Automatic annotation (TrEMBL):
The lineage of its organism: Eukaryota, Metazoa, Ecdysozoa, Arthropoda, Hexapoda. It comes from Anopheles coluzzii (African malaria mosquito). One of its GO terms (cellular component) is side of membrane. This is Protein quiver. It comes from the Eukaryota. It is a lipid-anchor; GPI-anchor. Keywords: Glycoprotein, GPI-anchor, Lipoprotein, Membrane, Signal, Transmembrane, Transmembrane helix.
Amino acid sequence: MFHRNGSFHAWFASITLLLLSTEIAITNALLKRCYQCRSRSELGSCKDPFLFNATQSENERGVSAVPCASGWCGKVIEGMGSFREDDYDMATQRMCVQRGPSDSEDRCAYTVYNYKKVYMCFCQGDLCNAANRLNVSHRWLSSGTVIFSLVFWKLYLSQISQMV
């Protein structure tokens, strides 16, 4: 498969470096942003499904991507009670939050916000509050990168031992 001249070693190092640099760029971005908007019922563009990316949101009235010092974004849905069928009293708000949960885990839960019972989601990452569901954690991406590297390192070592 690979020759003794180090082509596997060079390939392995290149792939590992690429995966790790992508991971670092994703998790350590200097500027984390959150979508900021508010919509009532079917009016406005803030409701789910959220149909905009960062470029499209620049041209949409009432939707913006704002810098977020904490890195924590939020989405609040209020009025999900008895009016759920017609969405008349439902409002969706996306914003930067000053701080995330005490355990620093992305999550959604019912809570009280501004004296109202709401469904609130917290996520950490650039523009993460666009999603209907929480995105895959960067920890899983990091773990996958490490596992991928270890598996191919083991293959490399087995290739070397067979050549000797």
